[in-house]
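re: ur question from yesterday

yeah so i grabbed the chain u mentioned. its 467 aa long if i counted rite. heres the sequnce exactly as i have it in my notes:
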Amino acid sequence: MTSTFRTLTVPLDGQKFAGGLPSFLVRDDVLCWTRREAGLVGFGEISRFTATGPERFLEADIWWRHLVLEADIIDSVELPGTGPVAFGSFAFSKTSAHQSRLIVPEVVVGVRDGQVWVTQLTFDDGPLTEAGALAALDRWLGGDSDGGSAAAGSTTAAADFAGNGTPGTANAKAGGAVVRPLPLAAGATLHTGSLSEKDWMAAVAAGVAEIQTGALEKLVLARDVVATVPSGVNAAKVLRELASRYRECWTYGVDGLVGATPEMLIQVEGRTAQARVLAGTLDRRDAHGEDGLPMDYATRVLAGSEKQRHEHEIAIQSLTSQLAPFSEAMNAHDEPFILELPNVWHLASDVKAELTEVEGHVPTCLALINALHPTAAVCGTPTQVAGALIRKLEHLDRGPYAGPVGWLDAAGNGEWGIALRGAVIESQDTVRLYAGCGIVDGSLPEAELAETWAKFRPMLESLGISN
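ran it thru and got these structure tokens back, copy pasting raw so excuse formatting
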């Protein structure tokens, strides 16, 4: 075995894959990043980097740049996502015991702008050929279509969650059944996680009280629930359901972390960086019985709400102020737009920046993430005050929830969303779901609790235990 990292990228016949990238989501251990039938999926693993603590992004960046520095790359497609690629998931908190990770797969399939390709990645010294790359892909697609055990891709994630401060299933059940009645599939159960609903609403009230003292402007509080599915969790099916239902979101799957996020932390292509910021949420079920068109209702309630617009403005300022030192030009929407999703509406803004050289080079994806995370959209502002209050009030190690998730390539391109609307598959039949809300002066605990249920809905539906 040689130490040289080698990759071969060759085009595939896109007409053979009419369903786009979701047609490759056939294994529970698949690595996934997809939106509107495009994106990347990865199979297998040839290398992995893990880290914890405040330097996790920079340590991962150094590891990746060192790995690809002398890589032998043959790439006849030359698009973002071709050549060497790693998928990643990072812990939300610098204090979390959860291991952040970059995973280099054995095979990657990509779809972009109507083009389809396959990349074989290896440290072996044998010849790399188009026939060999296609055979490697066939081996991964030709086995058990569901990837064996439903939790096959989540072994590491489940191990990371054991004993690191995140409540296990037994503790979650001790918290009692959820208060809000839900129609559950036969045999499925749903229990509160770190806090009961009553205690979580008390935490929201405590957060509002802190905001009213002037200590901070905004706080984001998360909660978890644990779903038990006796029939087993089919991760590949969950990913396909999310990709189909939430086409405007980025569906992700990394080591048992699955979900469909509407929020892009940073997307880098060449010297152009883009982000999508969300803050302000309205449950679409609240529009039932309202006069007029649903979007008119959403515009009136969201865009016309001083509270929602204030929360959104805080999130925009958080991102742009942190991105500015890396940019020679930047623009954002003067007015937020309404992002329409199957479960909720959001106030949303897109930000675009042209990156400048910092210390002689264009900043990498992970360097930008190190500066941007956590944003006000998932933490609050000021960041340090909000982060300390989160640790005090949530009684929850978020693990990878609300942390960056996505991919990067050797050319510096990458897409990193915020791991929202997601869950961690902890075992064959157990899934931990997460949801959070932005708390500002005027937030009502009961309304924020209802908002978490709207945000749990994508995962509950994709698991087939609620509708």
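noticed a couple things. The chain has two domains: 6-150, 160-462. also Residues 144-174 have pLDDT under 50 and may be disordered.
anyway ttyl
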